[in-house]
Design brief:
Elements: H1 4-13, E1 18-23, E2 25-32, E3 53-60, H2 61-71, E4 75-83, H3 86-95, E5 105-108, E6 115-122, E7 128-130, E8 134-136, H4 144-160, E9 163-168, H5 180-192, E10 197-202, E11 213-217, H6 218-225, H7 236-250, E12 254-257, E13 262-266, E14 273-276, H8 289-302, H9 307-321, H10 333-349
Parallel strand pairs: 1-4, 1-9, 2-6, 4-5, 9-10, 10-11, 11-12
Antiparallel strand pairs: 2-3, 6-7, 6-8, 12-13, 13-14
Helix pairs in contact: 1-10, 2-8, 4-5, 6-7, 8-9, 9-10
Length: 350
């Protein structure tokens, strides 16, 4: 178990860190439908939902920004492309509430700011539930001009930061910020500065990265390594084989999140090791758990932690966020300390 002194040393380092990020910034927009009010539309004869409040929050890459800020990182510097539109204005308004230098976020007129609009309605028991989500985004690649400008900004962010997080959440090939041109630039940067941390999390395209510290869940690692094509054939052994293959490909550690079991850490030419998850009780909401783990892992590595220590912190951060229901949670340093004490007490009881 990670010692409290080691944990304190990691947390004390975070305000001195500058972390760069590359990926798609989304706006998460929540529309809270007023309960108990029924107003009918004269035009359609259907109920017109009444929205007394709108809640905006940075999503996708913004979720990682939220997590890093909550942990106390000193400065966050994202490089991204959004639309020059109202949603972009609202997104940047929220981003600037964080310790963020937003000068490398490019706003372009030929692209929509990716926005997930989530109508929220109370059920008969008073619990909030999400209705059909409304997605706004440009379904196509970045222009050549936007990509060229983005690459300039990615290099500047990389050179000015202690480490770089790459988050590739767009399923379609080359439709997001992390397209082939940006990947090639990142590969060049990794060769130019091999000692600088580049941490990569990609839903669909992890196999395209032969450099950096890779992170994924079991299905993402299997897909990247090409070990099995059928998720139904996934076993602990095939996951370990995939992690070993990817670690040998990049010569860097590979982190695989395995749900409540914890995080599988695979270092080059070493057998994979499972860092057990932190048990939690009661209902959980796993949305954003992977991004929470990322924030704990990256900040710990930049603070001098070993990969196994970093995974332990990642597990602690994720265990806190999954208990925050109906929202993409975050964890503060004090919450991490408290969770460490709880885990320590539970281990003594056993």
């Amino acid at each position: 178990m990670l010692s409290l002194a080691r944990l304190e040393s990691i947390l004390d380092t975070l305000p001195r860190l500058t972390i760069g990020l590359v990926g798609d910034l989304f706006l998460d927009r929540y529309l809270d439908i007023a309960p108990g009010i029924c107003e009918m539309s004269i035009e359609t004869g259907m109920e017109a939902y009444q929205i007394p409040q709108i809640r905006n929050s940075p999503g996708a890459l913004g979720t990682v920004l939220n997590n890093l800020a909550a942990l106390g990182v000193g400065l966050l510097v994202p490089a991204s492309v959004i639309g020059d539109d109202g949603q972009g204005y609202d997104l940047l308004k929220e981003v600037r509430k964080l310790p963020v230098d937003a000068s490398h976020v490019l706003a372009v007129s030929d692209r929509l700011t990716p926005t997930y609009t989530k109508p929220m309605k109370q059920d008969a028991k008073g619990s909030w539930r999400e209705l059909n989500r409304l997605d706004v985004r440009t379904r196509g690649p970045l222009s050549a001009a936007a990509t060229a400008e983005l690459c300039k900004r990615v290099r500047q962010v990389f050179e000015s930061s202690d480490g770089l997080i790459v988050l590739d959440q767009i399923n379609e090939t080359n439709w997001g910020v992390v397209n082939a041109t940006v990947r090639n630039l990142l590969r060049d940067l990794a060769k130019e500065s091999p000692s600088k941390l580049i941490y990569i999390d990609s839903r669909q395209h992890l196999k395209e990265f032969d450099f950096g510290i890779l992170k994924g869940n079991r299905a993402e690692l299997l897909r990247a390594a090409g070990v099995v094509s059928d998720p139904g054939a996934m076993t602990d052994q095939t996951v370990r084989e995939a992690a070993l293959l990817l670690a040998s490909r990049t010569s860097r550690p590979v982190f695989c999140t395995v749900g409540e079991q914890g995080i599988l850490v695979t270092q080059p030419q070493q057998p994979p090791e499972l860092v057990p998850g932190v048990p939690v009780t009661g209902p959980v909401d796993i949305v954003g758990a992977g991004d929470a783990a990322t924030s704990g892992i990256v900040t710990s590595l930049l603070a001098g932690a070993t990969p196994l220590e970093a995974a332990a912190v990642g597990n602690q951060v994720a265990s806190i966020t999954v208990q925050q229901l109906g929202t993409t949670g975050t964890a503060s340093p004090e919450q991490v300390r408290s969770r460490w004490r709880e885990a320590k007490a539970n281990s003594l009881l056993r």
